[in-house]
Amino acid sequence: MKLLYQAWAINDAYDCLLAASFFVLVLLALALARSILRRVLAAFAARNEAGFDSIVAHVVDGTKLWVLFPAAVPAGTSVLDVPPTLAAHIGDMAVIAVIAQAAIWLNRFIAAWIRRQIGRRTADGETVTALSMISFTAQILVWLVAAMLVLDQLAFDITALVAGLGIGGIAVALAVQNILADLLASLSIVLDKPFVVGDAITVGEDKGVVEHIGIKTTRVRALNGQVIVFSNTDLLKSRIHNYKRMQERRVPFTLEVVYQTSPERLQRIPGIIRRAIELQQNTRFERAHLKECAAHGFIFEALYIVLDGDLKVWMDIHEQVNLEIIRTFERENIEFAYPTQTLFIQSSKRDAAHKEPLAQLRRLSAG
Prior knowledge:
Elements: H1 2-10, H2 13-47, H3 52-60, H4 65-77, H5 84-120, H6 125-153, H7 159-175, H8 177-192, E1 200-203, E2 206-213, E3 217-222, E4 227-231, H9 232-237, E5 240-242, E6 249-257, H10 263-278, E7 283-293, E8 298-306, H11 311-331, H12 349-366
Antiparallel strand pairs: 1-2, 1-5, 2-3, 3-4, 6-8, 7-8
């Protein structure tokens, strides 16, 4: 109050009226600029609701008149003679108001951007939880930084506070480093989406369907029914095969026919395989060839593409292909090979010479 009385004593009524006029004009100009900018940005945002314009409009809409009030005070006092201490206080008040408004703008930007990310993705529960946690943490950090800037503006020594926070943060980070690593891995999984709930994946020798993506662990239901729990950090360090994302499946297979198959029938087998594949929908034939002569018969190798990544669709199609090949082989009298051994016995002339006297002796005995 003493500083205000000194300022009143130094300046006459005309100067005070002029200062009040400047203050009101600056405040009205700021309010008018805010109103015009809000209307313009709202018009742009209406054309593209999901665009960046809507985020900017949301940020500008957070401009507060009670924050603009301290910012307009220096404009009014600029025409007055005020004590240096009062001028410093007015300047501090204006800076604090700007810091507070900047924090409000930044927090509204973070909230709007997070909402946009949720809207652009398939917003399952894990995604919403992770993004909401990111938004909350970021806004807390913004207000912490704003508070330290305000304390620094008010001439408080924040060096010890920053050092203490840094040491405390390092101690906490070392204590919970595994939890933090899994937490960051969880955020990476949710945001980058190498897999989502319901995807069939393979991690090393383990196969299964993703049931839950948590903050620390991910649960996968194995094919035999058991639940496999992976640490999120270990999961991202592994090579993950995601079968749900397949757009098509490459299907190689072989079949083997007996050596007694004639060359004419062997020439017809690639065509039989091709016809069996092309009779099915959502397939693309690639090749079929006589590959090699194996221990038990001739081996044919074929390859075709199933134009669908679903496992059940692939199995259904391959079953029909196999049945069609079996039916055609039966009509063509083509036999599949199976493990057999054929023993050929050939007697020598020496053996025949020994057997002839024995045969004559038997005939004489019979006579």
